Fold this protein.
Amino acid sequence: MTIVLQVLLRYGFGVGSIMLEETQWHLYAVGFMLGLSFTELHERHVRIDVLAAGFNSKARLWIELLGTGGFLLGFSLLVIWFAVPFAVSSWELGEVSAAPDGLPYRWVLKAFMVTAFVLLALTGMSRLTRIWKALFTSP
């Protein structure tokens, strides 16, 4: 809706709005960050199974365990580690957009990075429990 409104105002009435443009980019960012944990939860992330196609199910589970535990959780925790002070600093400074008619409260978007990667880490831990169960419980 924001994009339609922005296009209508700009090309229909010759009125541009930096605030609407920034809102559009912030909504994209929030959607993308929420999409990270959503795709992990529903196992819709991109995979390259060229090598794993020839492995048995136990080997694929071990690869999942190492990949999820090492890479996904490791990266999520690294982003959280750096994003928390980034968001806190933005909040303390009362950071706003550098554009003349830009959005205030830039810290909200930066704080959402923490939220999104906490959700991704929780989703990754959920996935790890399912992998662990499949590996170490007998059928």
